[in-house]
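Progress report, Aim 2. The chain analyzed during this reporting quarter is listed below.
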Amino acid sequence: MARRAGALRKATLQSCILSATSTIIAQLLRAYRSSSKPLSTGYNPLGLQWAPILQFLFIALLTTPPNFLWQQFLEARFPGYPASKDKQKLKVDDDGKGVTVEQKLDVKNTAIKFALDQSIGAWLNTAAFVGGITLIRGGSIEDCITSLKLDFWPIQSAGYKLWPAVSLLNFLVIPAERRVVFASAVGLFWNIYMVLRVSS
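Predicted structure tokens for the chain:
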């Protein structure tokens, strides 16, 4: 349990750092694209707007733990490489010790995880992002509903161009405890898109 809590804290910290980094990069890109030089004011030589950085940081802080637990649940319920009680031995000339055979990928479990992650997981993440950003910016529940109606499907459609490939790679290659961090690293670029989208 302590190991899991430590992994959760580490994943949350890494996701928050990546989220803040992506927000800063997005602001610098927006300033560059608009051909306006950032204002140099006091301790803010790049003219960064701290409110969006803190907003995205807060969203990462709120959404990473449930995502971490979601990935842990999916792997526990539908293991990609189920542990076998009876490990097979190969007959080789090694003084009769045998060689342990690695488990093969459980295609059915991987397909189920993929389907759940790209439906329930993706929908909840998109709704949490759209609703969370609206609330953090002072919006009401009615504003959240309006934002969800306007932004949910465009964001989800854009996400389906990236996240299914990331999800598949996650389930096939990345250990469960590192999946949120891997997704956050890919999300660095996704978050840049999201920051530019919600800022426009």
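The mean pLDDT is 84. The longest helix spans residues 2-33. These observations will guide the mutagenesis work planned for the next reporting period.
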